[in-house]
Each structure stands twice: as structure tokens, then as C-alpha cells.
Design goal:
Blueprint: H1 3-8, H2 14-31, H3 36-45, H4 54-61, H5 67-75, H6 77-86, H7 102-108, H8 117-121, H9 128-150, H10 161-174
Helix pairs in contact: 2-3, 2-5, 2-6, 6-10, 9-10
Amino acid sequence: MPEDIQEQEKIRSADEVARRCLVLYAVIAAGHGEPRGELVSWLQREKLWDSVSPQELSFLQSDAPTQKQLVNATWRAEALAPLLWSLGLVSELPTPTGLYDVQVLRRVLPPLAGPVAEWLAAAHLRSDSEIRDANESVYQIHWAVRDAQLFSRPVPHGYHPGVVQERHYALNWLIGYCGQDWDEISTDT
């Protein structure tokens, strides 16, 4: 990778990744029907509110979220998985052929609406090379999925397009792809 691009694509800090994980945890919970007001209070009380993206803020503060917002929120579990992997909290990312086990995610996160300071303080990232390798791997998988879709061929290896998309999204954010913020991440192939 050219040096100027790598400088622009700086891997996020462990603290920033951990905060993003907790925000996604709240978003996913809201998508599954947990009271959004309580989740907002938790994010504010735990000083995570500044880590909420504008789209997440709109969803969490909405009086009547759309069906699309609710579905998108639940899909974020697939983005949360690689971020937790990057923190070493899950040992490996399974091949993206099916939905990630949400119970695994819940086991490595602090209790929803509970204190998070210790969990945040313990956050540390895998090596840059592991993270970049995971990003390259999901990029190649996403390219294969899109190529198959473009040419009306079966998706190879049973890859799940939605899972691949969410993982690519999260890993691109993690590596600081093009300096984009969470709501603007592109997953070009």
C-alpha cells in the first residue's frame, strides 16, 4: 500500500473501537426492541454519547423508527463481530457464510446498561498486520460476492452477502479507510 494512503488509513485506537462496540451494542438492542430512552440514558451516563454517529442518534432518539432503521440496527451485530475480534475478545471470525451468534457477542460485552469503565480500560487491539490482513480478506470475499451478483452467478463458497457487507463496513472503519466516519464508510471493491 502506498505510504500516503497508509498515513490516511490509520487504524483506530483501542478506546475508539471499544466505544464503537458499546454504541453498536445499544443500537442492536434498540433494533431488538429494548427501550431506546433507557439505552440513550445509559450511553449518556457512561460518557459514550459523543461516540454515537448522526444516523445512530437519529435512530435512538426517534419517536417512531422506520422498519428499515430497525432492520439496519439488528444487522449491526455483523459489524460488531469483527470489532470485538479486533479487540481480541473473540478468537476468530468464522467464514461469513451465516449470521454471527449474538450470544457470543453478549458474553464478551459488559452487561447492557451497566458500568463500562473497566471494560473500556482493558481494551487493546490485535496487531496492525492482523487487522489489515482481515480487512484484505473481507475485501477479496466481498469482491467475489459482488462479481457473482453482477454476472448472475451463484455466490461462491456460500458467502452471505449481508454478513460480508457488514464485516467489510466495520473493518474499513477500523483501518480508517479514506478517513471516513462511521456513517460514511464505503465498501467499494
